[in-house]
Structures are given as structure tokens and as C-alpha cells.
Design goal:
By secondary structure, the chain is mainly β. It contains 4 helices and 29 strands. It has 3 domains: 34-115, Immunoglobulins (Immunoglobulin-like, Sandwich), CATH 2.60.40.10; 131-212, Sandwich (Immunoglobulin-like), CATH 2.60.40.10; 231-354, Rossmann fold (3-Layer(aba) Sandwich), CATH 3.40.50.1460. The strands form 9 sheets. Strands 14, 17, 18, 20, 21 and 22 form a 6-stranded mixed beta sheet that branches. Strands 5, 8, 10, 11 and 12 form a 5-stranded mixed beta sheet that branches. It starts with a strand and ends in a 5-residue tail after the last strand. This is MALT paracaspase 3.
Length: 359
């Protein structure tokens, strides 16, 4: 018996009195193409070099073809898993992946958003973390008119936007460069800011005040009623002093500062918790318990003495176990503490820092 193999066909020839041929078709099952990493949307300045990447698994050699703004517009020379371009204008991109068995899949569509705005201040070593190019501006408008606040940031991946008013997240204003309220009223007055984040970091815009008309406050008819309205329902203070660092110079002052401030606050009716030499985990735990004590009508005060620094407009507190050198991931962010305090809708939120503020 002789056997000949050609591609997917097996021919068996059996020498008998009569020669007969039997044909057996071998079906080869190729694996489905699976995209294991899709490209991501980006937001960059004009003429910025961008690399879009897709990763796929399948049988045999995989072929790639990138398209822009429609499945018929092939990107010239866009036949690799990585597509590098000079971003000139905002465009959509998608990649088709196919194998030799005529199977194909498409990646997710992604947007290369190009902002033709001032990019000054962006480091030449920028790695894609959010970089704020436009901060919102203060507004003073009349009731019934449109309120528009704008901020913009570069980022790879493109950053997500979350707007806040008076420390409270505006859930209907997510992932928007523009915050728009068609007919603003007095209740929309307050302090606004925006958080911009991606997988590489988070940045906050400068807070701005929005004044909508004149707020009319009904006068209190009785002094006692006014005093009751202004009185705190509780007063809580958390004092942290870090002085004995594992990898950084020791400090002398925090222990005395925490002691003296604690005595003064107790005289003012505060419930005070004083802690020294906390690791990052211990700091986060203490702050979490402190936040849980806050509520409407409560005065909340947080004090920290020790090493710290300011980076990208945000303040960070250095724990006693921070490595050398340390980064934001090893420290505690002050802005997050303030946001947590404001979310509890306290009557008064105070943060006092006795620390360095420069990198």
C-alpha cells in the first residue's frame, strides 16, 4: 500500500486485481484568533509620536492591517502589530488580524485625540501620565444662564475625567472635558475641580470658584437659633508626627508639636488622637478610622508633621518606612484626605501640614 500526502488530502492506493483509490480528507482545525491586548486611545499634542499596539494569538503566522476612520481606509505601511504615527489630527484607528486560513478578527476602535493647545510645562521625559494643559477658570454668571467649565489633559492612555463640586463627585459629569449646566441656579455655586487619571497616574486641576447670582440668606430671627446653627455637633482631630525614619534623616520637632497642638485642641473641645512614627499602612488605617468619625455638622482637623513633598501640584506625606528614593506610591496623598473629609459633608474641614512641599 502506498500513501501520498498533499496538503489536506491523503491518497491511499491498494494494489489488487482492480486498482481502486480511496480518498480521505484530513480536516486541519486551526485555532481561533484571539486578541490578548487591544490598542488604547490616547490624547496628545500636535505632531506627537504615537505607537498603537495590538497583540494576538492564533495558528501560524498572523498578518496585520491598520485602518483609519473606516474599514476601507488602509493605513499605508500599517502592516505590523505596532503602528507608529505622527499625530496631526484626531482620528479613529482599528487593526485587522488574519491568518493563512482566512480567519480574521478586528481590534477595538481607538481614538487618537489631538489637542492643538499649549503644551508648555510638559517634560521632555513625559511617559504618558496625565499632563494638564488647560485648567478651568473662575465663573461669575447670572442665574438661568449656561455654566461652562473646561479642562484638558494629555495622556497615554487618554485620561478619564471626573468633576467635583465642593468635594462631591458629579457623577453625571464623567469623562467630559467640558462641564456644562444649561440653566445654572444658585445651588450650582461652589468650588469646582477635576480629577484626570489613567493607568500611569492621577492629576487634579486647580480649584475654581463659581458664583451664580447673589445668594440670599434668610436672616435668623433669634440669636439663640443662630448660635445653635453655628455650633459643631462634634470636634475630632487626628495628629500624626513622624520623626524616626528608617531610610531618611530623623526629625526632632514633630513629637513636641503634636503634644502642644493636642493640648490646645482639647481646650477647644476637640477629641484628639495623637500618633507617632507610623508606617504607610498604619497612616492609611488611622486616616480611615478618623474619616469614619466625621459627619454633617462635625469639625474635622488633620495635622501632620514630618517629611513630605509636593509633586505635580499635589502634596504627599512620607511614612517612616518609605524607601530611598521614594515615589508617590510609597506616600500618602493630602488631596485624597481632604476629598474624603469633604465627602463626609463636615461643617468644617481643616488640614495643617508642617512639612516640606517641594520635590
Amino acid at each position: 500500500m502506498h500513501q501520498l500526502k498533499r496538503a489536506r488530502l491523503l491518497i491511499t492506493v491498494m494494489p489488487e486485481k482492480e486498482v481502486c483509490c480511496r480518498f480521505f480528507v484530513l480536516f486541519f482545525s486551526s485555532l481561533e484568533i484571539v486578541i490578548v491586548r487591544h490598542p488604547v486611545s490616547v490624547c496628545v499634542p500636535v505632531n506627537h509620536k504615537v505607537t498603537l499596539s495590538v497583540r494576538a494569538q492564533g495558528t501560524g503566522i498572523l498578518n496585520y492591517q491598520w485602518f483609519t476612520d473606516g474599514a476601507k481606509n488602509e493605513v499605508p505601511n500599517g502592516t505590523l502589530a505596532d503602528l507608529t504615527i505622527r499625530a496631526q489630527q484626531t482620528q479613529l484607528y482599528v487593526c485587522r488580524v488574519n491568518d493563512q486560513y482566512y480567519k480574521c478578527v478586528f481590534s477595538n476602535w481607538v481614538k487618537v485625540k489631538v489637542l492643538d493647545i499649549d503644551k508648555s510645562g510638559k517634560s521632555s521625559y513625559w511617559q504618558g501620565e496625565p499632563h494638564i494643559a488647560t485648567n478651568p477658570k473662575p465663573q461669575k454668571i447670572q442665574p438661568g444662564t449656561k455654566l461652562v467649565l473646561q479642562c484638558a489633559a494629555f495622556g497615554v492612555p487618554a485620561p478619564s475625567y471626573q468633576w467635583y463640586r465642593n468635594g462631591q463627585p458629579l457623577h453625571e459629569q464623567c469623562d467630559l472635558l467640558y462641564l456644562q449646566i444649561e440653566r445654572a441656579t444658585a445651588e450650582h455655586s461652589g468650588t469646582y475641580l477635576c480629577s484626570l487619571s489613567n493607568t500611569l497616574g492621577e492629576r487634579w486641576t486647580e480649584p475654581v470658584d463659581v458664583d451664580i447670582g447673589k445668594l440670599k440668606v434668610k436672616p435668623k430671627t433669634k440669636i439663640s437659633t443662630t448660635l445653635n446653627f453655628l455650633a459643631a455637633t462634634d470636634k475630632v482631630a487626628l495628629l500624626i508626627g513622624n520623626l524616626n525614619y528608617s531610610n531618611h534623616p530623623a526629625l526632632m520637632a514633630p513629637v513636641m508639636d503634636v503634644h502642644e497642638l493636642g493640648n490646645l485642641l482639647r481646650q477647644l473641645g476637640f477629641r484628639v488622637v495623637s500618633l507617632l512614627d507610623l508606617t504607610r499602612e498604619e497612616m492609611l488605617t488611622a486616616i480611615e478610622k478618623f474619616i469614619h468619625l466625621l459627619d454633617k455638622g462635625v469639625y474635622g482637623l488633620f495635622y501632620y508633621a514630618g517629611h513630605g513633598y509636593e509633586h505635580a501640584g499635589r502634596n504627599y506625606l512620607v511614612s517612616v518606612d518609605a524607601p530611598q528614593p521614594y515615589g508617590t506610591e510609597n506616600c500618602v496623598c493630602v488631596q485624597r484626605i481632604m476629598l474624603s473629609m469633604q465627602e463626609r459633608q463636615t461643617a468644617l474641614s481643616v488640614i495643617l501640614l508642617d512639612t516640606c512641599r517641594k520635590w
